[in-house]
Structures are given as C-alpha cells and as structure tokens.
Amino acid sequence: MSPIVILAAFFGTVAFAILYDIPTRYCFVCGISGMIGWIIYAILLPILGNMPAIFIATIGISLISRFFAVWQKCPEIVFLVSGIFPIVPGAGIYWTAYYLVAGNMSLAADSGSSAFKTCLAMVLGIAIVHELPQKFFSFKRNLK
Amino acid sequence: MEKVKEVNHILSVAMEAGKIMLENGAEIYRVEDTMDRIAKHYGSTDHHFFVLTNGIFVSGEDKDGSAFSKLEHIPVHGADLSKVIAINQLSREIAQDKYTLEEAASKIDEIRNIKNKSWLLQVFATALGSGCFAILLDGTMRDGIASFISGIALGFFIYFVFKPYLSKITGNIVGAMIISAICVLFKELGFADSLIPMIGGGVIPLVPGVAFVNGIRDIGDEDYISGAVRLLDAMLVFVCIAVGVATILICYEKIVGGVLL
C-alpha cells in the first residue's frame, strides 16, 4: 500500500464532499473518514477476502462517521456518504459490462452478483452501526 | 380565529424546513424528527407528519377542534448536504429558544437561497474524483491522469447538460458513454495502460451515494416505502452506468477491433 494510494483515497473522498456541497470546514474530516475506510479495506482484503473486508471497512467508516457527527454536531450522513465512496465497487461495474460485451453471460452474472454482494455487505455494515444506541457516541456529554 | 391562524403558521414553517431537508438528501427519520421538534417548540400539540421520498403530508388540530392539513409534492432533486446541515443547526438553535416563529421563517428562507459551490470547483471535483479513484483501482499514474482529463469532460457534461436538461436514465447512460469513449481513445493513442481502472474510476462521480446510503438507513428505520424507492433509484443508476460502458465497449470491440483488457 503506497502513500500515493492513501493520498488518492483522501483526495477522492474530499472531491465527493465538494460535489455534495458539504461546507469546506467539514471536507478535511470527510477525507479522513474515507482514507481510514480504505486503509481498513486494503489491509483486510488479502486476509479475509472481498465481502468480509468490505463489511468490516463499512462498519469502521460508520463508527467513525458517528463519532465525527457527535463531535462536529452535524448529521452523520455528511461523513458517511463521502467516506463510503472509496470502497464502492466501481471495477465490478466495469467487469459486468465487459463480460456482457464479450457475450459471456455466466461470467457477467458472476461479476454482477459479486458487485451486488459487495453492496449487500455495505448495507449490513451501515445497518448494524445505525442500530447502536446514540448514548455510545455521546460519552463526552454523559461525563459532564 | 386567531388561534387557528397560529397553528397554520407553525405547521407551515415546520413543513418548509422539512421540505428543504428532504429535497437535499436527508433521511426520512431526520426530516420527521426536525419537523416535530420545530412544531412542538412553538406550541403545537396535536399534529401528525407523514413523510415519503417525494411528498410530505401534514395535519394538525387545534384545541377548539379546527383542523389544518397540507400536502406538498417534492420532486427528487440533487443532494446539497450544506442545506441539510444548516437546517439541522437551525433546529438546534430553535430548541434553545433563540428565534421567534417569524425569525425562524426568515432564517429558513435564507437557507433555501444558499448558493451552491461554483461550477469551476464542481467540474474540478468531478475530475479529481475520477483521477483519484482510477489510482485506487490499481491504475498507474498515467491512467490516473487520463481519467482526470476524461473526468473534466464528464464534469462539464454533468453541470451544463445533464442537470438542466436530461432525465436520470439518459443522463447516466450518456455520462458513462462519454467517460468510456475518452478512456478508450487514450488507450488507443497509447497515453494510458489499462482500461479497467480508468473506466471503473471514471464513472464513480455518477454513482448515487446519497440515494444508496439513505435507502439503507430508511429501511433500517422501518420506513420501508421510502427506503425501497431510494434503493431502486440507486440500482437503476448502477444499471444505467453499466449499459453506457457496455455500449462503448461493444462499439470498440466490433468497429475498431480493440482488445478490451
């Protein structure tokens, strides 16, 4: 994992923060959440395979987004939407289209369903963290 | 009579706030919660909100039994999260008793008119996204630069043609075609190494992140209708992108006889 790739994850996420009109003061934090998500994914991918890596990376991004949301006092969707982008299956879309073109329907179905499974792993990750009660994340306020 | 007018006014202000949040990509739960908080704070006691992806229904009743109801259709729009953040902040300040109802209404008007970031910045961000994601998908530096340049073309297309004139289906197919065509051109001219990272990264700005994430969260909150609609919307866009890419690849393979890998 070269530093260039990590920088690419950071700036790619910031680019999406800009596209969604997120105020400039949050853009840096958005970039951090995308970068951490990508690092988790890249480390786990060779160990666990695609779906578990995506799943755990999504959980990581969602947790970070909730902490950032409490810390910055703004909706967590801001950090979650941009942070999730580096692990979206862009290559999966390419492969599905490629096999469709090549006329290889079984491989097209394979790569299409694997892109779909990646989406499902992201769904599970987001949904699980979403169910955690809010008080886990507002520990600072409880201390006061 | 005076009292009825007041409930009218309170619920209209709450609805206006909810409308801005919904059309700019907030979750259903957050919209309902914010509207409820605003209405309660200004003293409405008996009111109901029903929020869907593209509509808000409000009804309220006063103590003397006069009823108020309103329905508003909200077209599915882009995602401008700065407005969601601003309304969220406003509702916190309202809860802290900082504004009267009139002040709150004028604040909401101000938020509606927040300007988007300039087109130059948006085009640049599209290109930066394309370039960075090409590198993330194991592309070389040259692939990244080629993807960045095709991202500039995509940015101009999204900002000047797609958003003002085209429907979602046509826009996404044509957008994916533009990206693929330029990437194939770069490959043929020998400026880039591999099509997979270039196209896979290049189409990422078209991916409907807000619809996808919100769809999941709405289903998590048991707002099944809205969640299903949003997920369907996201899946449709994914399919459109794949169709656009496939169209160009077919032309490339059949007409030019290029090797796709």
Overview of the molecule:
The complex is a heterodimer of chains A (144) and B (261). Chain A is mainly alpha-helical. Chain A has one domain. Chain A has helices at 3-19, 24-48, 50-72, 77-83, 90-102, 105-131, 139-143. The longest helix of chain A has 27 residues, at 105-131. Chain B has 261 residues and is mainly α. Chain B has two domains: 2-112, no CATH class; 119-256, no CATH class. Helix content of chain B is 69%, strand content 8%. Chain B is built from ten helices and three strands. Chain B has a three-stranded antiparallel beta sheet with strand order 1-2-3, covered by helices on one side. Chain B is elongated and about 80 Å long. The termini of chain B are far apart. Chains A and B meet through α1, α4, α5 and α6 of A and α3, α5, α8, α9 and α10 of B.
Uncertain spans of chain B, ≥5 residues at pLDDT below 50? none
Q: What level of helicity do the residues of chain B show? A: 55-70%
Task: Describe the strand arrangement of the main beta sheet of chain B, using strand numbers.
Answer: 1-2-3
Give the helices and strands of chain A as they follow along the chain.
HHHHHHH
Catalogue the unreliable spans of chain A.
Answer: none
User: Element order, helices and strands of chain B?
Assistant: HHEEEHHHHHHHH
Structural class of the helices, strands and pairings of chain A? Answer: mainly alpha
For the CA atoms, what is the radius of gyration of chain A?
A: 17 Å
Number of strands of chain B: 3
Strand content of chain B: 5-15%
Structural class of chain B: mainly alpha
Largest sheet entry of chain B: 3 strands, antiparallel
What oligomerization state is this entry in?
heterodimer
Radius of gyration of chain B: 23 Å
Shape of chain A: globular
Transmembrane segments (chain B): 119-138, 144-162, 169-189, 195-216, 228-250
Domain Threonine/serine exporter-like N-terminal (chain B): 13-249
GO molecular function (chain B): transmembrane transporter activity
Pfam families (chain B): ThrE
